[in-house]
Amino acid sequence: MMNRRQLLGASAAGAALVSSTAWSKTTNMGLPDAALMESPLTQAPLMPSSGPDYNPVVTLNGWTLPSRMNNGVKEFHLVAEPVERELADGMTAYLWGYNGQSIGPTIEAVEGDRVRIYVTNKLPEHTTVHWHGLILPSGMDGVGGLSHPAIPPGKTYIYEFDLVKSGTFMYHPHADEMVQMAMGMMGFFIVHPKDPAFMPVDRDFLIMLNAFDIDPGSYVPKIMTMNDFNLWTWNSRIFPDIDPLVVSKNDRVRVRVGNLTMTNHPIHMHGYDFEVTGTDGGWVRPEARWPEVSIDIPVGAMRAYEFDAEYLGDWAIHCHKSHHTMNAMGHDVPTFIGVDKSKLTKKIRVVQPEYMPMGTAGMADMAEMSMELPNNTIPMMAGWGPYGPLEMGGMFSVVKVREGISAGDYSDPGWYENPPGTQAYEWTGELPELAKATDAATTITPAPLKASSNG
Ligand SMILES: [Cu+2]
Prior knowledge:
Blueprint: E1 3-5, H1 10-16, H2 21-26, E2 34-36, E3 58-59, E4 68-70, E5 73-88, E6 91-98, E7 107-110, E8 114-121, E9 130-132, E10 156-162, E11 167-172, H3 177-182, E12 187-192, E13 203-212, E14 231-234, E15 245-248, E16 252-259, E17 265-269, E18 274-279, E19 282-283, E20 291-292, E21 294-297, E22 301-308, E23 313-319, H4 342-351, H5 365-368, E24 382-385, E25 388-392, E26 396-402, H6 433-437
Parallel strand pairs: 3-13, 5-8, 7-12, 13-16, 15-26
Antiparallel strand pairs: 1-2, 4-5, 5-6, 8-10, 9-11, 11-12, 13-14, 16-22, 17-21, 17-23, 18-19, 18-20, 18-22, 23-26, 24-25
The structure holds copper (II) ion.
């Protein structure tokens, strides 16, 4: 749970305040508490405590930054700092992030709010925060050296601006950007519409696509990697430990996916067609929306899509680049499919009796056998479902649609039980009684409630 603590004492806070007299005059209170998150698990959404009502977002394996009101201004305190992030159970990375975690906490506010964001730099080098997609004064844009001087280590700067539009935005450093983003510094900035009746949804999930290159057995990402990352993450988390997207039947669901990696990611969701309803540029007008089952998320961009959760089940959601649903792997492994290794195996076993030939019939073996791995390393393929190994990793999770889940309940309901007659089965020479009894007019696939699943 939330563990708030005052990171700076009163004297340090006074010394750290930005030098602009105009800004310091508006601040008649000390620094807001810098909330700190120690858990890598999905935290309950923060319900609105002031201003217009909204349905808060849920950051998978993440959390939302608390705020306070100060003379009508919504104040937040971000702390840029080294963090230890659990990428999955059994693998921790030494990253840079915000307030104890990578990705940083989600900042959530409402169109029309004025926000004041204190940014304390506890990194060993300078940093800034760029507010990707927000409309704001040039001097608040967070490009080090262009918008304002970079924030030196140990100092606190203030960003302050009015939220003139609703939508999905991101934040990240614009100072030594290649290094700081490779180290995990990024987060979401959500601005809810002032009118609660504008495009309301029941569930609103956030996924930030990011990537790391961490050699098996080590902890720190290789910051010079440009393309060949070995850990493809959602909110700095990998399958099998990315929490599921838990949904109640007939909920209106929005999924917002941002991409701060260096390649595109076609995000594919099973079981549904959906409509693209937003980008980081704004909301898509109803007449301009388009249907998809995979949505390509370009580099440096965000896409939001929505669907009505009519179909019960456990539905995979994943990046469709198959190397992005694997954990750390070498790309220089030779292909052995079709190779007869039996003679070679005999020779090798003379000196190495435990030797096992691999890869001659594909690589699915990898998911079932437990080979010894270096410390702090997760297998390339992982995860067990109710019927066997999932053989996935990286950018993969499950949308779990169930009957009667209470609003605000995101706890894992377990695996879906397929009703009789609705699951693939082995042909054993004769159709089972249930299938024989089905006449051709009966359909086992649920019909959509509407001609198009989104209204
Ligand atoms: Cu991908």
